[in-house]
């Protein structure tokens, strides 16, 4: 019997609504597979906590999370708390403290009707974006000088260390080799004459150890265009923190929206827990209405299971998602359906049981 401990940080807005459905999936798996069990510990951190306690998480929050096998996070941020506080003091704090330097964001078209692009099928949009997740443009380094004065100056410094740059690029080469896919680096060396010239050099340098991997290198502006006009160019993609954040939202746009976009924050060495979360935010415009799409959060469960070494289950969950996407009546309004978040989760659990029986 394998047991995994999971820290739940449902967070704000639709976060708790979608995490509840992901937990439902894990509990269904437990029911079906006598070899697997999970325990859940929930933490109330987020914007409401901030408004009551003056902080986004407990002072020793990082220590409280340290010994879990994984963290399952909903979304953070809500009107009433400045976004830079909610994001930095909870989400980015966890990513940084646990050195979750790899952000894995699959961009995969599950059904042709989900893309606004003309004549694109599943085979045309199937990439894995590997985003640097620990430094770069989100390092939080800079200064705000002469605040409020006419000579006011702000500095936001990108931090690209050799260690940080090399390890993410090496991870991407390894993934491309393992998957037997091409690797594309997205950067901006023509304008960012220190950080991105360095990035390009490291990409080339590390590449010498991987002569079997076919590589491409694009400027981020051209890459953004190709994501829309020609997504089949991309298989495995490696890029910086900011560029990865942006191009994966384009990725979500061409594959059905934020309700279908997932991301895993990985510490590959497993020195610390990794964190699994949908890419979307707390969606205050639909929070509390019961219409949030839980599929992105459920896809995070698939990534979590892969990370636990339970790839068979990871695949069963992903295949079940694919199967569900043809049942429009059982999807949420963002995908053209009328189902509630809870109904999607219930239908998913039903289908998961069917898929498991079929597989055995
Ligand atoms: N990882 C995170 O926790 C994270 C990520 C992005 C934004 N945020 C925070 O979330 C708050 C809202 O940000 P935003 O509005 O820019 O982004 P958002 O992702 O919350 O919402 C953008 C749009 O997508 C829709 N949407 C998002 N998820 C959906 C889902 N599961 N089902 C159906 N529709 C969905 C929303 O209704 C909204 O119209 C802000 O406070 C922001 O800082 C947090």
From TrEMBL:
InterPro entries, A to Z: ICDH/IPMDH, IsoCit/isopropylmalate_DH_CS, IsoPropMal-DH-like_dom, TTC_DH
Broadest EC class assigned to this enzyme: oxidoreductase
Domain of life (superkingdom): Bacteria
Glycoprotein in keyword set: no
Keyword Oxidoreductase tagged: yes
Keywords: Manganese, Metal-binding, NAD, Oxidoreductase
PROSITE patterns per the UniProt record, alphabetical: IDH_IMDH
Reactions the enzyme catalyzes: (R)-malate + NAD(+) = pyruvate + CO2 + NADH
Family annotation (Pfam families): Iso_dh
UniProt EC number: 1.1.1.83
SUPFAM superfamilies named among the record's database cross-references: Isocitrate/Isopropylmalate dehydrogenase-like (SSF53659)
A GO molecular function held by the record: magnesium ion binding
Reported cofactor(s): Mg(2+); Mn(2+)
Residues of the Isopropylmalate dehydrogenase-like domain: 5-348
Family per record: Belongs to the isocitrate and isopropylmalate dehydrogenases family.
NCBIfam families: PRK03437.1, TTC
Protein's UniProt name: D-malate dehydrogenase (decarboxylating)
Source organism per UniProt: Lentibacillus cibarius
């Amino acid at each position: 019997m394998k047991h995994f401990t999971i820290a739940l940080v449902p967070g704000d807005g639709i976060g708790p609504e979608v995490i509840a459905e992901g937990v439902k999936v894990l509990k269904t798996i437990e029911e079906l597979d006598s070899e697997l069990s999970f325990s859940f510990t929930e933490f109330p951190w987020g914007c409401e906590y901030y408004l009551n306690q003056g902080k986004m998480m407990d002072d020793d929050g990082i220590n409280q999370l340290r010994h879990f096998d994984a963290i399952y996070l909903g979304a953070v941020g809500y009107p009433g708390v400045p976004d830079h506080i909610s994001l930095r003091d909870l989400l980015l704090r966890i990513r940084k403290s646990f050195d979750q330097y790899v952000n894995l964001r699959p961009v995969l078209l599950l059904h042709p009707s989900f893309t606004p692009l003309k004549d694109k099928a599943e085979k045309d949009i199937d990439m894995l974006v590997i985003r640097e997740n620990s430094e770069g443009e989100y390092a939080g380094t800079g200064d705000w000088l002469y605040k409020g004065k006419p000579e006011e100056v702000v500095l936001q410094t990108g931090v690209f260390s050799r260690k940080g740059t090399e390890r993410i690029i090496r991870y991407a080469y390894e993934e491309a080799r393992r998957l037997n896919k091409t690797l594309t680096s997205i950067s901006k060396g023509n304008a960012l004459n220190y950080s991105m010239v360095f990035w390009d050099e490291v990409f080339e340098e590390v590449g010498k150890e991987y002569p079997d991997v076919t590589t491409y290198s694009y400027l981020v502006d051209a890459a953004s265009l190709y994501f829309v006009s020609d997504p089949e160019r991309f298989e495995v993609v490696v890029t910086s923190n900011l560029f990865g954040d942006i191009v994966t939202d384009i990725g979500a746009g061409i594959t059905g929206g934020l309700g279908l976009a997932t991301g895993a924050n990985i510490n590959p060495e497993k020195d610390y827990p990794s964190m699994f979360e949908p890419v979307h935010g707390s969606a205050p415009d639909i929070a509390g209405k019961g219409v949030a799409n839980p599929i992105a959060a459920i896809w995070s469960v698939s990534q979590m299971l892969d990370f636990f070494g339970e790839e068979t289950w990871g695949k069963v969950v992903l295949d079940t998602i694919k199967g569900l996407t043809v049942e429009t009546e059982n999807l949420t309004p963002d995908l053209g359906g009328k189902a509630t978040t809870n109904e999607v989760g219930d239908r998913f659990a039903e289908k998961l049981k069917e898929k498991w029986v079929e597989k055995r």
